[in-house]
Amino acid sequence: MSTHDPAGGEARQPTEEELRAAYEAELKRLRVEDVVLQTIVSLLNVGGFKAGLVPGSEDEVDPDQARMAIEGVRALLPLIESQLGPDSRRLRDALSQLQLGYARMAGTEIGGGEPGTGAEGGPGEGGDGGEQEPAAPHAGEPGPAQRSGRLWVPGQ
Fold first, then answer.
1. Cα(111)–Cα(91) distance, rounded to whole angstroms?
2. Using an 8 Å Cβ cutoff, are 47 and 73 in contact?
3. pLDDT tens per residue across all 156 residues of the chain
4. CB distance 37 to 84 below 8 Å
């Protein structure tokens, strides 16, 4: 940031006092909701990158970072969701996409196969047929994916 001398002189760097005044003016204008929203959007963008959802980011995949981004969005979104109105749906959709990407990535790590190839080792997904189907959960009990701790469930 530089200022122009009104007398037609050369541009000069702002003083510390001018910088402080500009910063304070920005703080007065800024609302916490704006910062929370920008943080959510940043977490979704970085999380998508770390989950390999952005073309060219395959070498940057980091499940721990993707999970942390998901948890950060899940913690912050309820703080401003009511103020966003219909726009909150777009953030929820982006979060869902990030969670799906993370689930695919986590499944690949656990099963050792590529997503969508049937090499994940689950029942009916290219297994040798000798695997036994897990027992169906009783009403109110979590299923095998939820029990594993790998499945995100809203509200939990």
1. 30
2. yes
3. 555 555 656 789 999 999 999 999 999 999 999 999 999 999 999 999 999 999 988 888 999 999 999 999 999 999 999 999 888 999 999 999 999 999 988 876 655 544 444 443 333 344 444 444 445 555 556 555 555 555 555 555
4. yes
Paired with 55 in beta bridges are: none
- The pTM of this model reads 0.59
Which tokens in the block code for residue 98? 């990030």
Inter-residue contact 111 to 58 (CB < 8 Å): no
Q: How far is CA 74 from CA 1, 44, 48, 95, in A?
A: 37, 10, 15, 8
Instruction: Please state at what angle helix 32-50 crosses helix 87-111, rounded to 10 degrees.
Output: 30
In the block, which residue shows the tokens 């912050």? 76
- CA distances (Å), origin 128, targets 116, 131, 133: 17, 7, 12
